[in-house]
Specification:
7 strands, alpha/beta, EC 4.2.1.33, branched-chain amino acid biosynthesis
Length: 202
């Protein structure tokens, strides 16, 4: 997991509430045993036509949003199942930040575990950003340390984030990274255990 500090990117508007994880990545594609290859499946049922060709009307297929790295969506984003594949697909596609009025708790926690930042802003402000994103090249700068979102017109919003989650994101620490911070203590504990007991090797 890479540390997250600041990011500036083109905003992609996805004006829809209650986007569930099956819409983000359909269940029929959850057959891989690793976490790669999901970017091309992101929003598959909306992104592609029945013959498999990209739907030119879908936002990700519009030229002005290609390369966009900040997704702005409606309330309750990421609801539904707890599948981690949803955040894998968003990150692999290229999104580094998702802004919405609210997120499903499990989705937000899954996102934090891979370094994908979820930012909660008031619904009215999200609506304004959605409208502004209709202009080609509209960007936001997200500063995690300062907890701010700034656009090119000088509008700055502050967002709240759990202190522990912020620490982990700033330092690139997922659950394994947090555990390995105590590698020396784990090694000492293992060295002191009776030889007949099962052992953990790092």
């Amino acid at each position: 997991m890479e540390p997250f500090r600041t990011h500036t990117g083109v905003v992609v508007p996805f004006d829809r509430p209650d986007v569930d994880t099956d819409l983000i990545v359909p269940a029929r594609y959850l057959k891989r045993v690793d976490r790669t290859g999901y970017g091309e499946l992101l929003f598959y049922s909306k992104r592609y036509l029945p013959d498999g060709a990209p739907d030119p009307e879908f936002v990700l297929n519009r030229p002005q949003y290609r390369g966009g790295s900040i997704l702005v969506a409606g309330r309750n984003f990421g609801c539904g199942s707890s599948r981690e594949h949803a955040v894998w697909a968003l990150q692999e596609y290229g999104f580094q930040v998702i802004v919405a009025p609210s997120f499903a708790d499990i989705f937000a926690n899954n996102a934090a575990q891979i370094g994908l930042l979820t930012v909660v802003l008031p619904d009215a402000r999200v609506r304004e950003i959605m409208q502004a994103a209709g202009r080609e090249g509209y960007q936001l700068t997200v500063d995690l340390e300062a907890q701010t979102v700034t656009d090119g017109f000088g509008h700055r919003d502050r967002f709240e984030i759990d202190a522990f989650k912020k620490h982990c994101l700033l330092n690139g620490l997922d659950a394994i990274g947090l555990t390995l911070q105590h590698e020396a203590e784990i090694a000492r504990f293992e060295a002191g255990r009776p030889a007949w007991l099962p052992r953990v090797t790092l």
